[in-house]
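Fold sample X.
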Amino acid sequence: MKKLIRVFRFESDVLIIDTVGSDFVIKCIPAEFSYSVVEVRKGIPYIPRLFLFIRLCARVSQFGLKNKALMSAIVDSINPKVIISFIDNSLIMGQLDSIFPHKLVISIQNGTRMSTGGFLNGNPNFMLPHYFSFGEYEKDVIKRYHIKCKEIYNIGSLKAGIFLDNHHESILQTDSICLISQHWMITDDEVKNDYMEKLKCVFLNLLSWNKNHEYKIKIAMRSKKSATVDYKNEFNFYSDNNTTKKIELIAENNFSSYKAGYGSSIVITMDSTLGFELLGFGKKVLFCAATIDNALQHKENIDYIFHKMPDIVLLDNLTQKEFDNKMNALIRMKNEEYLSQTKEAREYYMKCQTLPPHKVISEFILDNVQI
């Protein structure tokens, strides 16, 4: 049974839906606006006020015993001018936009979207409010799956923009290769298990390639050290065959993966969001997800997301020869040539601009809301 979670601010100008990514969303809120954060995943939010109970009764009468009845009652009680979330594949944001047409409702993209499972969660009623996306690619995905969207603005990655705004000058560029780990626990999910198999092969290819190059190898881990079981499993995944002496395993912690990737000569990934973000920064990236099993239905999604990627950043197969050829080509290529060959893809997948995304969203709120 879910626990009750109290909302401490009873009134605010901005309501942030969910604590996930709320630290980043807060940076989008103009200084003169007050805000509340509502936890929606770990329990049932409530406000200890009679007015919430009255509005909840009215909304249950309107919608039945559904999540949108509770969330709309909370909006009634807090009465924000802006509702915003970093959980862009949540059904509730589109619902709140329909229920409150005179409020500004915003969803901010927090990860790559390539299938109905990731974007729509299998719900045909899914819709997007004002949507701040990574790039032009999301516009094509929305058209492809006939997703309803109020308006879409491609501004790049919020999290990557905050990282670049605060950390890039302090990160030294080193002769290193960063492998972004997309490690999962073994499950019944055939796609995840296939990814794990391919990821291990890519890792071993990297070790073999590096015998003749002697770059420092960094593994940007998916797990935090505090996640004991997950961290141990991921650590063991990369430390078989006495490889720990040859690599640096970097646990997830406060932009650690961004720092590892940004400071490296080449970034290797299956298809992580971070890989696309670093591509947008102009980093040399090798994407490996095109090597997944052709029999998997997900292969169609992979082929589509990579359809505007130049061949130089895509691993075609898992042979050592193919891996060596792609890595050597990226190492030899001058940065100017790389930026030229990837220009169209970088602009399509991950917009980068002078004004960082959090400031773009802040200005959008100021332009559309008065307090």
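Fold sample Y, listed below.
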Amino acid sequence: MTSTEAERQKFRITAENRNVPEQKRRRFCYEKDHAPQFSESVCCRYGSFWSGRLRRLCILHRSILPGKRRRFCRSCRQGTIGILMPTLNAEFFAVTANSMAARLAEEGYTGNIQGFNNDAAQAVSVIENFITDGVQGIAYMTVDTAGDDALKDAMDAGIKVLTCGVENANYDVCQIMDNKATGYQIGEMAANYINENFGGSAKVAYITSTKSQNMMDRVEGYRQAMEELCPGADVVYEAECVDVGQGTTFAENLNTLHPDCKIILSYSDTYTKEIAEVWNALSYPKDAACFGHDAEAAALKNIAEGGYIKGTVSAGDPGVAMAEGMIGCLNGEYKDHELVVMAGTEVTPANIGDFYKA
């Protein structure tokens, strides 16, 4: 027997008795015979080595490191999930993508985050790249149905598909909000504010969009709510906002054209945040108010601090919801072609404590 073989025999562990040699920080596989070098740990199922002085044994195929983050042995990693967002320049989508990737990482998946800049052709190209890369799943925040054919190709290739936003033709699971209903909630908050603070009569401005059916539905929702709940409102200005920074332009133009207009309704907090910044710089009247959607952290903070943002709509953490949907899809927890409708919650100064802690 060679010296190397003798050394291995000395530190051998068997599945029958699992006698662990008393040597500091050695870790051994439960199921296989291994004699790892000092400070290595082995996955209890696959025997994949990890280096590191304080790493722990794999638990249910996971090697858990000290601290908050988990790591997995190379053989236990679940694969990659393609995460596709309309843009990564807007905080809401960037935070959603990162939140989803973090939750997926807890289950051993790697998130490949991509944006398509609100360009349908670019979205199709990214999906095709995901297929080529052999991802296990695609989580796609949709704004229209332009990627249907590419999603069908992905499903035909055995890739699980979760869409969120606009209901399209091809998916395993689709998560949607009733955007007309959540838009109505935006209008309801604004109407209540006008009725309570301006006697039911005020000049109003609307941020609109023709780029996304979701956003168009929200705008239609707040138009309807205002007509029904605050008929004394006078809509004096409307303009489309699609890209980051356009809320700033909207607020500046409104101040030039209608400096006495104090109420703005927006389909997204991307723009209410920018409006609040402009109004702060202009020392706008303190009773001015804007209302949005998505419950972004900065918007919640503004509400809590008594700023110009007086209301937003929350759907919880959409990134975690998408991750849970994808995990469930991969685990076979949904029926084929399942539609999941998520509700929104109005967030105002009255209940901000439930959503934001300083």
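Sample Y note: Confidence is low (pLDDT under 50) at residues 6-76.
Also: The radius of gyration is 26 Å.
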